[in-house]
């Protein structure tokens, strides 16, 4: 079986001052200690990227942005291109987060354009999907996830090629910031469904290599049980990634 390197990713959303972000980065960097087989990533606000990049220094932390525009440049007031993110030091970009989808009207069609632009530039996309409580309660979880996958990766499907570096994140909307985590079984069921979708849409080899992160109220107390599931390859963490005291233990989840 292919060994996928686990990833613990912190999505800081619209939080922290530059100073706080730098201090947290330093705390996470030193907190990694001798854990060499877990990838660690932080996604600060745009204005903090350059300072966080400097604070990462020699530590093994990947830098991501939380969004980008699909065009390379032009008259798009208030937007940031993938190339600009790379210049700020990003290697990854979160795309299609449910907050972008629900609060800013971002559709899977738009996400697809962003995924295409990111891949063209060599930025690794972390593509988020997830159902709302209403969709889950009306038994539409798999239908909704399939539609989000199909459309958000339409370009990969057209090319019949999904880069194996692509990262997917399953974030049930009802579990984000609510304190309600999906049970490991609930999360695993959807992760399995997503992996099967990759296998059917691309190949079993791609499906074996692509990492699928879980996000939604992940904390030091529940991370180990989630990470024990075979198709959960990491965590995309909001609230608990804002403090070193909770972020660092996530990286050491095996000792929890
Ligand atoms: P919480 O961990 O705060 O629930 O947020 C999850 C999330 O949205 C990460 O992208």
What is the gist of this entry?
43% of the residues lie in helices and 15% in strands.
Give your account of this protein's structure.
This protein is α/β, with parallel strands linked by helices. It has a single domain, classed as Aldolase class I (TIM Barrel). The chain is 43% helix and 15% strand. It contains twelve helices and eight strands. An eight-stranded parallel beta barrel has the order 1-2-3-4-5-6-7-8, surrounded by six helices. The protein starts with 6 loop residues before the first strand and ends in a 5-residue tail after the last helix. Residues 11, 97, 171, 176-177, 215-218, 236-240 line the site of 1,3-dihydroxyacetonephosphate.
Number of domains: 1
Task: Based on the coordinates given, report the CATH architecture.
Answer: Alpha-Beta Barrel
Instruction: Evaluate the radius of gyration.
Output: 17 Å
* CATH superfamily membership: Aldolase class I
Strand/helix succession: EHEHEHEHHEHHHEHHEHEH
What's the level 1 CATH class? Answer: Alpha Beta
> Quick one: biggest sheet?
8 strands, parallel, barrel
Runs with pLDDT <50, length 5+?
A: none
Q: Layout of SSEs?
A:
Layout: E1 7-11, H1 18-31, E2 39-43, H2 49-56, E3 61-65, H3 82-87, E4 92-95, H4 98-103, H5 108-121, E5 124-129, H6 133-137, H7 141-152, H8 154-159, E6 167-170, H9 184-201, H10 204-209, E7 211-215, H11 223-228, E8 234-237, H12 244-251
Parallel strand pairs: 1-2, 1-8, 2-3, 3-4, 4-5, 5-6, 6-7, 7-8
This protein binds 1,3-dihydroxyacetonephosphate.
